[in-house]
Amino acid sequence: MQGAARIPVKPRFEDHFSRQSGSYAASRPDYPATLFRYLAGIAPAHDRAWDCATGNGQAAVALAPHFHEVIATDASAQQLSHAPRRSGIAYRVAGAEESGIETGSVDLVTVAQALHWFDRERFYAEVAGVLKPGGVLAVWSYNLLQISPELDRLIGRLYGDIVGGYWPAQRRLVEDGYRSLDLPFPELSPPAFEMVAHWSLGRLMSYLGSWSAVQRYKDAKGPDPVALIADRLRAAWGSEEHRAVRWPLALRVGIRP
Predict the structure, then answer these.
(1) N or C: which end of the chain has fewer CB within 10 A?
(2) What is the CA 107 to chain-centroid distance, rounded?
(3) Closest CA to 181 of 111, 129, 247
């Protein structure tokens, strides 16, 4: 039986993405459909999923075919403005720690590439409140993309040597694959998943330009840091129009007792 709705408090958060929300939405890779089939398969029912910190709605759209309703929340109204509208998805401006979702009404909670921003103790309490017994909490992250050894080295130089000082401290948790974080529930051992895209060099450059650390570098120094490696990226890319780009996902899954 569902409990009374809780009124969300207007979120206060450090916004790292709204300013480049348009380019961020356009350049993000898609999560694999197999991930969402797996999560739907271990959920106790398919009535409602909550995609927390949905951003541009990528995970919410992928969840929608598997659940009667998807509630997709984000603290940034600007980010949500770029999310595609689909039947069965309700977008709401709300913080991770104050969702406003009814107690005991959710079968699955997902957090894609965002857990490191949360007040995790308060978020875990919120998840314990909204999940049904046997409900699933799934959180995942991804770090640097993989294309080829030479391109990977150049992108690693941009990431670490050039804009490394402009990443927020929370980024270390992503680099760690969330291994150092505790989940509030007993965990499963999920299979491995990865994102795969076939991108042009232009799409890759747009993706690199959407990094929040690149934006901060430009604010501090003026020039575009991606331009510092652009010629070498073009040379390493070669004559191929498209290349396979991969991001291994670091997935953690817990089941509410």
Answers:
(1) N
(2) 19
(3) 111
Q: How far apart are CA 190 and CA 251, in angstroms?
A: 7
pLDDT tens profile 164-205: 999 999 999 999 999 999 999 999 999 999 999 999 999 999
pLDDT tens digit sequence for 72-126:
999 999 999 999 999 999 999 999 999 999 999 999 999 999 999 999 999 999 9
Alpha helices by DSSP H, listed for the chain, are 21-27, 33-42, 58-63, 77-80, 120-130, 149-156, 171-175, 201-209, 212-221, 227-237
What is the CA 117 to chain-centroid distance, rounded? 11
- Nearest CA to 44 out of 114, 137, 118 is that of 137
Global confidence as pTM: 0.88
SS3 of residue 188 by DSSP: coil
The CA distance from 159 to 143, in Å, is: 10
CA distances from 17 to 11, 66, 151 (A): 15, 28, 25
Of the candidates 181, 92, 185, the one whose C-alpha atom is nearest the C-alpha of residue 131 is: 185
Per the CB < 8 A criterion, the answer to whether 185 and 108 are in contact is: no
Q: In the beta sheet, which residues pair with residue 50?
A: 71, 109
What pLDDT, on a 0 to 100 scale, did the predictor assign at position 25? 53
Residue 136 β-bridge partners? 108, 255
